[in-house]
Input
Amino acid sequence: MNLPPSSSPDAPRAGRIIQNVFSIAVLLATLFTAFSPRLFSGDFGVTLLALMTPQPVSDVSVPPGRQAVRIGIVAGHWGNGEDRGAVCENGTAEVDVNYAIASLAAQMLEAQGYTVDLLQEFDPRLEGYRAAALVSIHNDTCADLGPEATGYKVAAAVGSRDSNLSDRLVACLYDRYGSATGLPFHPSSITRDMTEYHAFDEMDPATTAAIIETGFLRLDYDILTSRKGVVAQGVVNGILCFLNNESVQSPPSP
Ligand SMILES: [Zn+2]
Output
């Protein structure tokens, strides 16, 4: 470095310059030491390296736009006072089985990024309800109706505004729920309680809706209560089939 000698008239200023240069040199030396590879050993180094390494996009990342897709799940009989639906001799009530399945299905859909409303049987929100899909979950009697009383059924509203869409939702639920659970389809027990389900009249006519009875509380008791994750997944798969426009076979007519 070509600096003026310290004995010059500018000595005090030169001294300050030397001091400043020295300070900068010390600072630079410290910084270089700090960023030497030695730092990249130990936990902090691992953390820092991880932060500096581009991470692969996680599988659980939500595709944009899913939050805008609203899905309604009705837990049958839930919040309807004394009405608990079918009740078994051991005290198990349909409303509790419905709620367990419905809330699990809602969680699964929320985990995939959808906006989900878990609704009571006569939820005030059902009035004019708008969603991409509305599915009501019920179960059939605990009474002993013989060996035939097993399986599930799905129905759309009689006179849905867009029967193509509601037929598709029914077909998706029929196909995917049957595949996931292995339960038989039981179309002969579809009643007017299902096809003329009250929520179908209350909701916005543009909402596509269906009702599923996921099983009979007597013969299907085990899967409905002990393996409700499988049952909920079957419902979720049916809804996703509908939303994603997946190809599907129509259910056999009753
Ligand atoms: Zn019911």
